[in-house]
Amino acid sequence: MWHFISEHISQATEQLFICEHARVAHGGDSHACYIIHDHQHRFFVKTRPYDDTQQLSHEAEGLTELRGTQCVLTPSVICHGVTRDESPEMEYLVLSYVKFITPSQDAYQRLGEQLASLHLYNGFSSYGWPHDNYIGLSIQRNGRKSDWAAFFAECRIGSMLERLAEQGHYIVNIDNFVDDTKQYFSHHQPHPSLLHGDLWHANVGFCHRGPVVFDPAIYVGDSESDLAMAELFGGFPTDFFHAYAEVKPISHHYAERKLFYQLYHILNHGLLFGGHYLAQAKDIINTIRS
C-alpha cells in the first residue's frame, strides 16, 4: 500500500517521495490515520477499505472547495485514490501535515472572522450540493433546490427522520413535521453560503498560521446552520460568536431557527448512536412545537 501511495505522492508533488516510516495517528471511526515521512517530507494519510461510498473522495472535495474560497485554512489535499493490485483495495486520502499547537488568546476570534468571510463568499445561487456526501458515517442527502425551506425540510430533517424510522425509531409524524418545518422557513431565503457542515470543536485545530478546519460535510445553505452546530457538544467560546458577528451580523431570529438546525445534528447522532440523542431530539421537537 505505501509503495502505491508513495508513487502517487511523487506524481502529485513532482518530487520523489518514498515512505520510510508510517506511524498510526489519532483519527475517526470510519478510517485509519497515519503520519508518513521520508528524510525530508511529512504527510497525513487516511485509509479505509474501498467500497462504493468513496467517503474519502467526498472529504477531499469538501476540503478543496473550502480552501478554494481563500477564506479559511484547511489541510491541503495532496492526492487521493484507490490502491490497485492489492487485497483488499484501499481508498486513501493524502493531506499536508499540520502541526497543531495550543491556540492563542485570539485564536477563536480569528476563526469567527474567517468563518463569517466564508459565509459571505459569493459563489452560489442555489442550496444543496450536486450529489450526496457524508456527515460522519451518515449519508448526507443533497441535490439542488432554489427554495431553502424545501431543501432543509426535506433533505435534512425529513431524510434523517425517515432513516430513523427505518431503524424503528418513530420520533414524530414525519410528514406533519416536515410540513411544519417547511412552513416555518417559508419566508426565510438566506444568502446561499458554503458551509463546513460539521463544525464542532473536534473538527478545528490551530497551527502557527492560525485556525485550521477539517472533516467537512459541505453543502450550500444558511450560514446559521454552522453557527448552530458550533454551539453543540461543548461549543465554541463566546469570543468566536462575537468576532463572527462583527463581520457578519447575526439575526435576532437565529435563537429560534437554531433549534431546527441543531435538531438535524442531534437526529444524525441518534441515527449513529441512539440512546439519549433520541430523547434529546424529542425534547427539541417539543420545544419547537410549544
From TrEMBL:
GO terms for molecular function: kinase activity. Pfam families: Fructosamin_kin. It comes from the Bacteria. InterPro entries: Fructo-/Ketosamine-3-kinase, Kinase-like_dom_sf. Keywords: Kinase, Transferase. The keyword ATP-binding does not apply. Gene3D superfamilies: 3.90.1200.10, Phosphorylase Kinase, domain 1 (3.30.200.20). Belongs to the fructosamine kinase family. This is Fructosamine kinase family protein. The lineage of its organism: Bacteria, Pseudomonadati, Pseudomonadota, Gammaproteobacteria, Alteromonadales.
